[in-house]
TrEMBL record:
Residues annotated for NADP(+) binding in this entry: G165, R166, S167, V231
GO biological process, one term: purine nucleotide biosynthetic process
Subunit record text: Homodimer.
Catalytic activity annotation: (6R)-5,10-methenyltetrahydrofolate + H2O = (6R)-10-formyltetrahydrofolate + H(+); (6R)-5,10-methylene-5,6,7,8-tetrahydrofolate + NADP(+) = (6R)-5,10-methenyltetrahydrofolate + NADPH
Gene expressing this chain: folD
Record pathway: One-carbon metabolism; tetrahydrofolate interconversion
Domain named Tetrahydrofolate dehydrogenase/cyclohydrolase catalytic: residues: 6-120
Key words, A-Z: Amino-acid biosynthesis, Histidine biosynthesis, Hydrolase, Methionine biosynthesis, Multifunctional enzyme, NADP, One-carbon metabolism, Oxidoreductase, Purine biosynthesis
GO CC list: cytosol
A Pfam match: THF_DHG_CYH_C
Designated name of the protein: Bifunctional protein FolD
Family note: Belongs to the tetrahydrofolate dehydrogenase/cyclohydrolase family.
Function: Catalyzes the oxidation of 5,10-methylenetetrahydrofolate to 5,10-methenyltetrahydrofolate and then the hydrolysis of 5,10-methenyltetrahydrofolate to 10-formyltetrahydrofolate.
Length: 284
């Protein structure tokens, strides 16, 4: 039997519509969620990502500001921009687009963002809050994955979730979120022995390794829900996930496609975090 395809693109659109409607209601009470995005330098891919964030903010009815700074911006100048945004009452979320030019220490900049405005959820304080289960803004891609699992009708409680990949941005936080959802969680990585035997026990398999089509059907338990975080450009120019989608389609119970699976959820969760931060500040 063919797996149910988890339509991230459609689900993200639904969430965006929910956010747009809630924003409309908040505006009647004088609350306008605001997101500031900071882009340093002229990396073309980053410029496209930032443009998409700006466009989505406008669609949501948010206040949106983009600070486009030259490549030669010093770390001190960038820290001063972040400090201004921390003090700016119209701004509820701050996102500094990564990667930054090499002469700037990313960690110093991320650490400087006020925790209540850390809509990326990348800072040590946000990460610590996530680990100990305190209220916090959640990193966008991991939060989007949990939302996809929920909206596919799967409750992670009691299930065996296997996460392949241990990055700070996806693997580690998604494992923590699955644990918070009461799953039994195993993390596999490049040094894991016998990964196939472990992965094929998973009821929920999350793959975030950045290797095209690396995970084939032998890693998938029949009926498992498979979440593919990878976005890899093939020589043919086509995009492929980390999972061999065609091969796994008749083994998995449900699977996310690439593109149109996890990807569109990230920006929807960024909007949700901005809305949350605005509501929290207003005491709603
Ligand atoms: N660069 C690529 N993805 C991201 C993201 O999610 N957040 C930030 N800040 N930079 C990125």
């Amino acid at each position: 039997m063919s797996a149910k395809v988890i339509e991230g693109k459609r689900i993200a659109q639904e969430i965006r519509e929910e956010i747009r409607q809630e924003t409309e209601r908040l505006k009647e009470r004088g609350i306008v969620p605001g997101l500031a995005v900071v882009l340093v330098g002229g990396d073309p891919a980053s410029a496209v990502y930032v443009g998409n964030k700006e466009k989505t903010c406008k669609e949501m009815g948010f206040h949106s500001e983009v600070h486009r700074l030259p490549e030669e911006t010093t770390q001190e100048q960038l820290l001063a921009v972040v400090a201004d945004l921390n003090r700016n009452d119209a701004v509820h979320g701050i996102l500094v687009q990564l990667p930054l030019p090499k002469h700037i220490a990313e960690k110093a900049v991320i650490d400087a963002i006020a925790v209540e405005k850390d809509v990326d959820g990348f800072s040590p304080q946000s990460t610590g809050n996530l680990v100990i289960g305190d209220e916090s803004l959640l990193p966008c891609t991991p939060a989007g994955i949990i939302e996809l699992i929920r909206r596919a009708g799967v409750d992670p409680a009691g299930k065996h979730a296997v996460v392949i990949g241990r990055s700070n941005i996806v693997g580690k936080p998604v494992a923590m979120l699955l644990l918070r959802e009461n799953a039994t969680v195993t993390i596999c990585h490049s040094r894991t022995e016998n990964m196939e035997a472990i992965a094929s026990q998973a009821d929920i398999l999350v793959v975030a390794i950045g290797k095209p089509k690396a995970i084939g059907r032998r890693y998938v338990k029949p009926g498992a829900i498979v979440i593919d975080v990878g976005v890899n450009r093939l020589e043919s120019g086509k995009l492929a996930g980390d999972v061999d989608y065609d091969e796994c389609l008749d083994v998995a119970g449900a699977i996310t496609p690439v593109p149109g699976g996890v990807g569109p959820m990230t920006i929807a969760m960024l909007m949700q975090n901005t809305l949350k931060a605005a509501k929290r500040k207003a005491g709603v």
